[in-house]
């Protein structure tokens, strides 16, 4: 039963006959009263004899409870002063030194994410129900580190017809996204030099370094990544279909030169096909992997087509890397969760995935066209034939970014993508048109237009 502590006017909500014992119940009640402020710091508590009489418990139980809370720092006891509530530090005292909190942007045009509001929830639920209804009981057990055979088989057919990838199921490893694939590959290459595009995504360079690799820059120009500088590299990471962030497509001569380098030197090409499905003005460029399947690791993901929350990606590997990558995957997280794999396999085989990708392609093309209508007539806008972002030339990144902050607009910029911040580098804004919701996108473009005035 609840007890009212008349000595200090505090309702302890004490249940002396609770299953965890009278002393534990009293300790918990006192502790809670101190934590939530009902017993303020400095409050003098009654003597154990009086407390025991009021609550109908033994004095020894009361004394044991006091002693425990004194040891925990909730109470203090001094000779002649009795027992008091200890002064507790405020939550801010335990926090790191306060820093100025950045104001959340009103509009987010940063690259890297799709419009997650387009996630096909109804189609996913249908696929999930069908997958679960037909899944064997072993699907709920630990699985193959390479991934569910249902998904690997579905991906084999899809990647072949959609991206021109030579992808037998036995050479596919399902991962928890692109980043895990890159990390696994770096560890398997055992601290070799990995060349990465310059400019390129800095987070991916960090992934390589955190997994023991050494990063070297590869120059990117209007034809894409160059072969120069690959002499000491064990592998080169490329975004050939739509280079990030410049948006250039790897030129056919460069494709041949890079595959020739891989064959001649035993090097490895890592193809990041992050948005290969989204091409607008011409037929999609086939994956580089189809030209040299024995020398290219193809990395794909559902993050841009469905959503990053699913954490589903895939690697198509040369035969000599399959076992090593599968072993690294086994010792990293054993295997990617299976139920999502079964649902995605069902979406692919039922062609619901293709329908969703086609719908997204039309939506993002409209957004791309809206961006061009708003800013494309006044300045250079590059990388617009595909993907979910565009590069807008500016002469002074810092000034434009300052205006963007004032307007509550978040955008990416070219300066953060270079390997080294050398003076004289080209400047530009990297504008993502996938992230905003449909209703706010037009206003976001208006704000972007104002920010670019005079840039």
Characterization of the model:
- The protein is α/β, with parallel strands linked by helices and 455 residues long.
- 39% of the residues lie in helices and 16% in strands.
- It is built from 14 helices and 17 strands.
- It has helices spanning 22-35, 48-55, 59-72, 91-94, 121-134, 149-163, 178-188, 202-210, 252-265, 319-333, 338-349, 352-376, 397-407, 441-452, and strands at residues 4-5, 10-11, 75-78, 82-85, 107-109, 172-175, 193-198, 214-221, 224-225, 235-238, 268-272, 296-301, 313-316, 381-382, 389-393, 409-413, 428-432.
- Strands 6-13-12-11-10-7-8-9 form an 8-stranded mixed beta sheet, with helices on both faces.
- α8 (202-210) links the parallel β7 and β8 (214-221).
- α1 packs across α3 (59-72) and α6 crosses α11 (338-349).
- The longest helix is centred in the last third of the chain and has 25 residues, at 352-376.
- The radius of gyration is 30 Å and the shape is globular.
- The model is unreliable at 16-20 (pLDDT under 50).
Largest sheet: 8 strands, mixed
The backbone outline, from C-alpha atoms, is: globular
Average predicted local confidence, pLDDT:
89
Task: Assess the beta-strand content as a share of residues.
Answer: 15-25%
Amount of helix: 25-40%
User: Unreliable runs, pLDDT <50, ≥5 residues?
Assistant: 16-20
């Amino acid at each position: 039963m609840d007890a009212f502590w008349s000595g200090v006017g505090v309702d302890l909500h004490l249940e002396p006959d609770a299953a965890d014992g009278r002393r534990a119940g009293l300790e918990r009640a006192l502790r809670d009263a101190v934590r939530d402020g009902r017993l303020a710091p400095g409050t003098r508590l009654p003597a154990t004899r009086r407390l025991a009489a009021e609550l109908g418990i033994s004095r020894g139980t009361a004394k044991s409870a006091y002693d425990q809370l004194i040891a925990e720092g909730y109470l203090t006891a001094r000779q002649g002063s009795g027992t008091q509530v200890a002064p507790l530090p405020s939550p801010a005292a335990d926090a790191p030194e306060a820093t100025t909190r950045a104001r959340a942007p009103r509009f987010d045009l940063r690259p890297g994410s799709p419009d997650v509001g387009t996630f096909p929830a109804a189609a996913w639920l249908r696929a999930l129900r069908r997958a679960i209804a037909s899944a064997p009981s072993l699907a709920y057990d630990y699985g193959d580190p390479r991934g569910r055979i249902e998904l690997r088989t579905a991906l084999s057919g899809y990647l072949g017809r959609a991206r021109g990838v030579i992808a037998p199921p036995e050479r596919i490893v399902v991962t928890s996204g692109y980043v895990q694939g890159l990390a696994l590959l770096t560890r398997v290459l055992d601290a070799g030099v990995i060349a990465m595009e310059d400019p390129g995504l800095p987070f991916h360079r960090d992934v390589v370094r955190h997994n023991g690799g050494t990063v070297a820059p590869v120059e990117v120009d209007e034809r894409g990544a160059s072969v120069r500088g690959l002499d000491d590299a064990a592998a080169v990471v490329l975004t050939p279909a739509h280079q990030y962030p410049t948006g250039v497509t790897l030129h056919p001569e460069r494709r041949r030169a890079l595959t020739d380098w891989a064959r001649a030197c035993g090097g490895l090409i890592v193809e990041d096909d992050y948005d290969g499905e989204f091409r607008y003005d011409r037929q999609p460029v086939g994956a580089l992997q189809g030209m040299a399947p024995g020398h290219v690791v193809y990395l794909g993901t559902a993050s841009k087509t469905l959503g990053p929350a699913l954490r589903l990606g895939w690697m198509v590997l040369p035969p000599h890397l399959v076992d090593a990558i599968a072993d690294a995957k086994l010792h990293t997280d054993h295997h990617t969760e299976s139920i999502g794999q079964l649902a995605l396999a069902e979406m692919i085989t039922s062609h619901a995935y293709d329908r969703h990708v086609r719908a997204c392609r039309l939506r993002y093309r409209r957004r791309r066209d809206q961006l061009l209508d708003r800013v494309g007539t006044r300045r250079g806008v590059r990388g617009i034939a595909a993907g979910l972002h565009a590069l807008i030339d500016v002469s002074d990144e810092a000034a434009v970014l300052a205006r963007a902050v004032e307007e509550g607009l978040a955008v990416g910029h070219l300066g953060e993508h270079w390997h080294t911040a050398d003076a004289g580098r080209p400047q530009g804004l990297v504008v993502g048109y996938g992230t905003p919701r449909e209703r706010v996108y037009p206003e976001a473009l208006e704000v972007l237009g104002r920010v670019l005035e005079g840039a």
